[in-house]
Design brief:
By secondary structure, this protein is mainly α. The chain is built from four helices and no strands. Helix 3 (71-81) packs antiparallel against helix 4 (87-102).
Amino acid sequence: MTRADLGLPISWRLIEDWCHKPFTYGRPLDSHVKKTSKYDHVDFSKPGTKEFWASFPSRAIPEKVSTRIDVDWLEAEVESLEAEMTVHEKDMAHKAIRQLRVGAPAY
């Protein structure tokens, strides 16, 4: 059986180099370039300033529930199909309708 049969290189010197030199995975450490971010200077152990939060999109919480779904139609459809639903499907359907009417919980 030869080295080539075992998947080893023909050159014995290369095998000796593997055994005697420290092996590094991937690129050498000195070639690593640190990526920078515009948030590198931020101290995340403290609350952010108004200037920091101004760069993030935000929207106020709506005063009332709004949806493009016709909730009355959906409720009628669920009621017409209740005989074919499992207990869990009924519970989930009624939960969805309730959340469309009054809003989803905030937790």
